[in-house]
Amino acid sequence: MSMAERGQDSFVRALELLTGDDAGPTMVHCTAGKDRTGVLIALLLSLVDVDRAAIVADYSATQLNLREMFRRIDALANQPRLKPGTPASAALRDAAPESMEAFLDALEERHGSAAEFFVKAGAQSVWIERWQERFAEV
């Protein structure tokens, strides 16, 4: 949760961009897709009431790609803090379902909902409404 709160301005900006008048299909990605990207996607899915189990499953699916990604990173000579066995490396090498469960628990405990998180962080309610409208069943 601390990552989300420290980066709240970036998450609010992402929501703003995704709901702007000229917003279209968008790909959100990063190297691993489990930290800031995983949190952003979890927040966005939560805004449209995606089932918690589906959010956790989506996040933990990242684990399938981490082994190959870290095989490549391990080959880099200038990444000593990411070498296998270091504390930073251990945290980075996992996308455990429990991590997302803990994030969603903290989100609910501290903010009540993803919508409240965004509002407290400065998002305009119209952005949340636009996002939700895009996923409303027709």
Q: State the CATH topology.
A: Protein-Tyrosine Phosphatase, Chain A
Number of strands: 0
N/C terminus separation: 33 Å
Q: Roughly what percent helix?
A: 55-70%
Annotated CATH homologous superfamily:
Protein tyrosine phosphatase superfamily
Mean pLDDT: 83
CATH architecture tag: Alpha-Beta Complex
Shape: globular
List SSEs in N-to-C order: HHHHHHHHH
What characterizes the major β-sheet? none
Specify the number of helices.
9
Unreliable stretches:
none
Structural class, please?
A: mainly alpha
- The structural domain count equals 1
CATH domain class name: Alpha Beta
Determine Rg (CA atoms, Å).
Answer: 16 Å
Describe this structure in words.
With 138 residues, the chain is an all-alpha fold. It is built from nine helices and no strands. The longest helix has 15 residues, at 97-111.
Can you describe this structure in just a few lines?
The chain is mainly α. It has a single domain (2-66, 97-134), classed as Protein tyrosine phosphatase superfamily (Protein-Tyrosine Phosphatase, Chain A), CATH 3.90.190. Helices cover 63% and strands 0% of the residues.
Sequence-ordered SSE layout with sheet pairings:
Blueprint: H1 2-6, H2 8-18, H3 36-47, H4 52-60, H5 63-74, H6 87-92, H7 97-111, H8 114-120, H9 125-134
Helix pairs in contact: 3-4, 4-7, 7-8
